Amino acid sequence: MTTTSPLLELRGITKRFGHLVANDHVDLQVAEGEIHALVGENGAGKTTLMNVVFGLVHPDEGDILLRGTPVTIRSPLAAARHGIGMVHQHFKLVPSLTAAENIFLGREPGNGPMLDGPEALRKAAELAERYGLTIDPATRVRFLSVGQQQRVEILKALSYDAHLLILDEPTAVLTPQETEELIQVVHELRTRGKTVIFITHKLNEVRAVADRFSVMRDGRRIATLSTGEATEADIARMMVGREVLFRVTKPDVVPGQPVLEVTGLNGLRVDGTEAVRDVSLEVREGEIVGIAGVEGNGQSELAEFVCGLRPPTAGKVFIDGREVTRADVVQRRAAGLAFVPEDRMDRGVSGPMSVSENLAATHYLDPGLSRFGVVAPGRLRRWTRALIGRFDIRNANPATPVHALSGGNIQKVVLARELSTEPKVLVAAQPSRGLDVGATEAVHRTLVEQRSQGRAILLISSELSEILSLSDRILVMYRGRVVHETNARDATDEGLGLYMMGLKSDHPGDVQ
Ligand SMILES: Nc1ncnc2c1ncn2[C@@H]1O[C@H](COP(=O)(O)OP(=O)(O)OP(=O)(O)O)[C@@H](O)[C@H]1O
Ligand SMILES: [Mg+2]
Description:
Rossmann fold; six-stranded mixed sheet; 17 helices; binds adenosine-5'-triphosphate; 2 domains; binds magnesium ion; globular
């Protein structure tokens, strides 16, 4: 026989969590040297399936074959011995250690428990050089950007001589430019004979990065196609089982009073460098103001200053006419603020707590949930069920611990909590991050509804298409300053792009 076996073959993989069938008799073949995208709705079973391949989850049924030979993969270490590496949806690096220490954590060169520093540094630099993944091995991970942390994760996986690399939503947290770079890295890995499985919700990436893709729905694999055979709309339809509208319709709303006002705001990053310089803005009732910008230009920090997560060094913040510059998060919420944080895993939820507890965390005093100041369990359950339904949080009931949900469904818990209050001001940072196309559509619809109800919405997003389709006004941030303000109707991708890259500015003298 001349036919070669696929590098990886899954036969009838089934994984149940209690009554829930996360993977339902999944067959999948991944050829040697291909880039295979894995797509599907939030909770479809993508991460679970890859965790099976990586030895983190043990299947109830089914077989794994590597180059035609059945194998049992009991642990990530066993997976590494088989040449399988994985970069997880949520990074697992140790922030206080250096890049090199993280790469070789658990099996440092040299003997004994002591880390052989210089040797690890040298090996990390060598590895980075070999794969063209530029990092500084001596920097502590805490000080690295998300894109750099991801490179460390990839190098860690490659350091075991992986020939199959699994990347679980690697671009969810990357800037468009970092995404471009990652796609090049992945193509480069293919040139070197590596095989890559790439999970993503961004349909343009499926076509940009992959040779073939497989679609999962409700735990099953429902299709595998060459990327040339399908349009983005086709892929979306296969994922969610219906047509997806990529356009939002926005009714005309006449904006009212300004309810969020920021004047002359200055502030620093965690590392002490200047993040935001002299930013003034206002958001009125019934208005969505979008902040566009390449990530890292102060947008995230702006949200943190507005929401009271970090104190600014100068300037003022007003909510509904009340100065809240020195107020903490709780006081700002009482003044009418709701906040969808960018970093929902760290700031947004508590994993061991139930969906119900997480949803109610900022609502305990709502009259609808408590009686005589005490939470009424029946009301809380009903309210939670309603939110689970409305926000389509999959495979969840009020008592499910949040860490048993899929990545995207955890995001939905935070969105549901923040969007279910009736705030005066909503700050939404990267609201569609990690969401599938259907859920993204639903969140966009919710934001537009909130606008119709008179909320003032400050939208921060690195997805320019999201900014353009939702905003009434758009501000562009570059190096901590607002360099451009425009009516959304007059804005285009290309036009905003020039300001985002610092090639144009409304301030005379900024650009030579
Ligand atoms: N440890 C667990 N305990 C219970 N249920 C789990 C566990 N891990 C996953 N699940 C459930 O299995 C289903 C599939 O989850 P999985 O994480 O594989 O989805 P996914 O396709 O990766 O979704 P996303 O796009 O949101 O990351 C989900 O409904 C989730 O709630
Ligand atoms: Mg996942």
